[in-house]
Amino acid sequence: MILGDIGSGKSSLLYAILNEMRPVDPSATRIDVNGSMAFVSQKAWIMSSTIKDNITFQLRYNDQRFERATYYASLKKDLEVMTDGIETQIGEKGVNLSGGQKARISLARALYSDRDIYLLDDVISAVDVHVGKFLMKETIVDFLSGRTVVLATHAISFAEYADEIIIMKKGKIIKQGPYEEVRETEEFQELNRIEEERKEKDQQKEDD
What we know:
With 208 residues, this protein is of the alpha/beta class. The protein has 8 helices and 6 strands. The relative contact order is 0.17.
């Protein structure tokens, strides 16, 4: 899990793993990726086609595989209320979907692709608290058990589920280690304080 406040460099680290960002000094930096990767970006990518096409994305359709992908992306209830189900046509840039639905369709696409490594850029922040807990516990921890999952997020409340935590600030890694070690550090406590303040502000907006 990559933790850090907004603008700390979490997404940049993921793009570096994807080889979408080049190091200043290539001779001093090496990134080795062993296995196939799936990437869920912070801004969901949706094409103007059916939900089915968006999830399978040029791969052959397999019913069981599709069922698992939509279940663990917490999409089943959404599909049940759509008139055409998985054949529902999505408008340009997902205009007829909520932000959470777009994020979960992108996640379902990644799950359907059945890769070794999953890079997830803040997918939890786009959904409500209940769905976020499901995605963390049921999907990331259980369903993807045995895979490598790199989750960039500022949702520090889920940090206890991580095997390894990286804390970033101003584009640099400032702390790294297991949860039991990192949670007692000043850097972790600062992120916790920032997250609590953010939650209070969001609650105030809802109350107003």
